[in-house]
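User: Need the bound-state model for (2R)-2,3-dihydroxypropyl phosphate:
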Amino acid sequence: MKKIKKTFKKIMKFFKEFQYKEYANTNKLFLTFVISSLLNSTLLRFFTVKNYFAIKPILADLAIILLFGSFVYLFKNKKRFTYLLILSVIFTLVCIVNTLYYTYYMSFASFSLIAVSLSVVDVGDAVVENVLEYKDFLFLWQPILLIVVHHLLKRKDYYNRVQMSENRKKKFLGTLVTGISVYALFFMTVTALEYSRLSKQWNREFLVTKFGVYTYQMNDLIKSLDAKFNTLFGYDNAAKQFRDYYNTKDNTKKTNKYTGIFKNKNLIVIHGESMQVLAMQQQFNGKEVTPVLNKMAKEGIYFSNFYSQVSSGTSSDAEFTFSTSLLPVTNGAVAVSYWNREYESVQKLFKEKDYNTLSFHGNNGDFWNRNNFHNSLGYNKFYSKNSYKVTEENSIGLGISDKAFFKQSTKLLKKEYDKNGKFMATLIMLSNHTPFSDVDKYGEFSVDIKEDIKETTETGETVSKTVSYPYMEGTTMGNYFKSAHYADSALGELITSLDEEGLLDNSVILYYGDHDARLPKKDYVRLYNYNKETDSIKDKDNEEYVDVDFFKYELDRKVPLVIWSKDKTFEKEVKTAMGMIDVMPTVSNMFSLDPKYNLGNDIMNLKDNIVVFPNGNWLSNDIYYNSNKNEYKVLNNNAVISKEEIDNNNKIASKKIEISNDIILYDLIKTEKDKLNKSEGE
Ligand code: GP9
Ligand code: MN
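Assistant: Bound-state model below.
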């Protein structure tokens, strides 16, 4: 204790006696670099997580800037500017990449995602149209300022004057020690929860909020490199956790009303690109956006509280979680980085029952590495772009239109059926993909408000006319509804053509929305608060005003899940909170399949459930919990929420994410299966 006090006194004395003015006069370029870098990282938080006044990330950012910056004093004058400029460019790039990434994914960039980003270059147009904003270039002021200051100083012969009187080593050590002290001060304020999240690195939004962007990115770099070492060294511990988890899991088979109801039937899975429940709920001028899907939901089993659990692998993550009942990783996309692992999948379970397993997608087979990924999921055959006739005329957005795709797929499926018998087939849709700008090709569907009014003319005659208020016309969400309407009508055509080929007679259709459409918040505000008289948004004071806060936005990202068959009407709505992770066990029960490693549940056995999102947020029937801010919203007014319940659910959420990540990273199903089977047999 005495020692600490002494050191503290020494530091205080140093700061008291420090010649601030002289320091400022002899370190102009360095100070410009420090202050401007700090402003840029604050600006980034201003554009993203919005906690610009928080002291903690400012301290952490400052520490990193000083630590990296201090090495400038090891260089002679001429090289100093080059060094600081290189650092500036790196720091600026970190800010630009992260602001872009945040606009698209509502999260921060990771080195481990480089492979993923490269694999989705095909959506380049979507990025340019939806993501790039002028504000992203604002960060460039920083290196520009550094160049300008450098030239001004050079002109005044500043460098030669300063160098005469300086002690480089002292300056280097002084700056380094200051950096270390600021960092130490910062780390004294870090809580246990924050440390644990830093080490796990899932909740990237939380990390930037608390640790600032530079520390986040450094940690991310170390973690991404570390992943390679981790697979070597963390195995034993992960394997033990895995065994403990599955040994204590309740493995007794629960049967219910739905057990085996679809045994031996064909399964047609439809991967509904970007389809949200929001679209199902909208009507414009008396016309539903998705009449076909709504009809299927009404006749079949409709899971109306269903959420996608994707991470940066979006479509491929939805496919992965649907197939395996595991969560996607947050450091990359499973399809790209971890496709070569052994997973237990619904496709493999069907195969064990002599089903032919098939996938169909009109896009390039390399997209999301599907050529490899689908094979490892257990599909016998993947029909990709080169199995289709794709022309300029039959294309929409990213490629072949859903209508053309379905038409050609039905023929391919029919051939497969005639040759190989019962099947499980997945049809991955494409047209309803952001940026929803191919409006001319979606067909007629207006998203305005039309009203018939009667007017008296000068001659006293009464005439009727139709007036139109623009409402959602011209907005991204409006275009999305038009696109969703197209996708829905394609679904209708598919049902008809399957029926014509006799493929519906012994089949079940499962339709899921793969993830939300990433629509801008301002469009939700307009959807809910449109004032047609003024063609503007209602006032916030208006008692009808609907606030689109974080929770409302997240809840609106809900996607549909419908199970439908031509010959049986269920008219059943399942309202229990449910995630994609629960589909595989639910479907398995209906088809009499027997999964072992699923992390989700057969929803038909549950009254309540916890839907865990890959970033640590979770949802039950009663609450949506935001792990980033440790805040929650009560969804059921009758529910009594206790702290224990929240803590307990947080533990469940962490455990699921951890076990899932470990299975993927360490290939645990492959390596542990035999051991686990052995211990079960004992
Ligand atoms: C691409 C399609 C879209 O083939 O599945 O992927 P997404 O951008 O939604 O992840
Ligand atoms: Mn998708």
